Every structure is written in C-alpha cells, then in structure tokens.
Amino acid sequence: MNAISAVGPQTALPASDAPSGRALTVQHGDTLSGLAAQLGVPLDRLLAANPQVLNPDVIYPGDTINVPGGTTQAASGAGGSYTVQPGDSLSGIASANGTTVQALLEANPQIRNPDLIVVGDRIQLPGGSGGGTGGDGAGPVEGPDPTAPPATGGADGVTAAELQQIVPTLSTAKAEAVAPHLNAAMAEANIDTPQRQAMFIAQLAHESGGFHYMEEIASGAAYEGRADLGNTQPGDGERYKGRGYIQVTGRHNYTEAGRALGLDLVNNPELAAQPENAARIAAWYWQSRDINAAADAGDFTQVTRLINGGTNGLADREAYYARASAILN
C-alpha cells in the first residue's frame, strides 16, 4: 500500500492529540484496531472515514488517518486503563497517552519487564481514576481483561507448560515469556488449528535453536552486496543480518515485514530480535507464503521447504512436530 497522504488542509497530529474530525499521524507500532480503541471509534467507522486504507491490517508509520467526528478519544494522562493490542509496546502506549514509560511502570508494579507486555493485559494509565479504554480506573489490574479477546491462537493456542514439553530445553521463565507472543502472532496470521500451530511452532523451534537464538551469530558481512536480498547500500549486510525466530535477512525482507506489521525495521533492524516482533515476523512470513495451505494438507516436508528453501534439519523439525502434534491435538 502506498503511504497515505494528508487529506485537505488538516494538520496531522499524533494519535494521543487528535480530536474527532481531525487527522492523526500513524506512529511506530500502531494498528488500525488499536487506534480505533484509543479514539473510541468503531473500526468500521474509522475504515469508512479512510477509504484510502485498502487493507485494515496494513498501515505505516507516517501515514495520515482521518478521525470521524462525533467520537471521543482515549484519556491522555487522565487515568483509566488501556488493553494491550497486538504490536503494542510500553513506550508506544506511553507516547499515545501523554505519559512516560517510568510513570507506567510505577502505576503498574505487576510489570516486571518493560519489554514484555502481553496482548489482552490491562495497563493502568497514571493521572487519576477517569475512564480509559476498557478499564474502571480502580487501580492496577493484573492479568488479562476478561472482556478482551483471548491472547491465544485458535484451538486455545499453546500454554507455557505445553511449550516446555514441545521444547524440553526451555526454562519455565522463557516458556512463559515466549508462549503469549506465539499465540498472539498465530491468531494474527490465522494459524488457528492444532495442525497449523504444531507445524508453525516446530519450524520456529528448529530455526531458533529452541527459541534460544534471536540473532545470527555471524556478523552478517557475508551478505554485503547481495542484491538478491536487497542489500544495495554500504553496511546492509551487517545491518540486516538474520534476526528473529526465522532469521529474517536482507534489506528487502526487513522492508516488507516492516510495512506489513507497522514496524520501522529499516531504521531499527534490532526490533526484529524482540520476542513479540520475532513471533509476528515469523507469522507474517508464514501467511505471506500461504504456508497454512501446506500445513492443512499435512505436508510437513513442503512446509519445511517454504520456510528453509530446502529440507535442512528435517529430522530435528519432525521431532519437534511429533511432540507438538501429540500435545496440541
């Protein structure tokens, strides 16, 4: 999709500053559904006000979104709570609500790792007890919002305990950190049957060494000048070396993944190594190549070829798949 141009003489504002009837500028990590929730606008009304948005799942940082009139926005710095959406980060939530990461951490002592928030969790917004998006302003809320969509894929996704059985080398803490991001990403990419999920998890487990490696050990210098990867500028080889659960590699793939997911991976390639982004990038790759079709056909070898380009490590992948199938089915 082409970048959205500003409409008429309106001034584009950040999401947290945009009143109804004006325009806002998409920030890194924004999703259309997340903006709709922040602004108190039904998603279908937001789409109707922005006919230039051809795919509601694809908006880019810098795009301009029109806010339809007669709506209210989320409280900014006035308390309340916010329900975490796919693609959210604590820094993005802070920016959208006119506060700081530190203030959010102080208002949410249940958050022990600022880089780890889970889709469906409610974040208390500092500044009072006014109504926010989805909360009652009664103080920090631990755990998911019971009215929010579950942070799992179809067929209940995978629990941390199940993930440990599939990947026996995973610690409890690591499994608890990885599973929610896998579930959110699988839900986003319609990896929503036990067979699809078993194949997806098996492939990622092999590619990442059991969810251990988030970045290619080599420097990436070997990719320098690789036009087939889109590495056309000096330093692209190391800048866009393999990262994430499936080792996305090259300027071209970073660009495409970033556009699809609303992440500025070109200017911030290290984002691909963050667990929540690693899971979403893997799911994007899976969906963009229609790997669900091969998974539905039960063709694990073809799934491997679509992920790997060949059948490297097939026996290890199949071992993960056998355990995943037994557990998820």
Brief summary:
The protein is mostly helical and 329 residues long. It has 13 helices and 5 strands.
Provide structural commentary.
This protein has 329 residues and is mainly α. Among the domains are: 12-66, Membrane-bound Lytic Murein Transglycosylase D, Chain A, CATH 3.10.350; 154-328, Orthogonal Bundle (Lysozyme). Helices cover 38% and strands 7% of the residues. It contains 13 helices and five strands. The strands form two sheets. A three-stranded mixed beta sheet has the order 1-2-3, with no helix packed on it. Strands 4-5 form a two-stranded antiparallel sheet. Helix 5 (160-166) crosses helix 6, helix 7 packs antiparallel against helix 13 and helix 9 (251-261) packs across helix 10 (275-288). It is globular and about 55 Å long. It starts with 11 loop residues before the first strand and ends with a helix. Residues 1-20, 70-78 and 128-154 have low confidence and may be disordered.
What are the SSEs and their pairings?
Blueprint lengths: L11 E3 L8 E3 L6 H8 L3 H6 L15 E3 L12 E5 L6 H7 L4 H7 L14 E8 L30 H7 L5 H17 L5 H14 L28 H4 L11 H11 L13 H14 L2 H6 L3 H9 L5 H15 L1
Parallel strand pairs: 1-2
Antiparallel strand pairs: 2-3, 4-5
Helix pairs in contact: 5-6, 5-13, 6-10, 7-13, 9-10
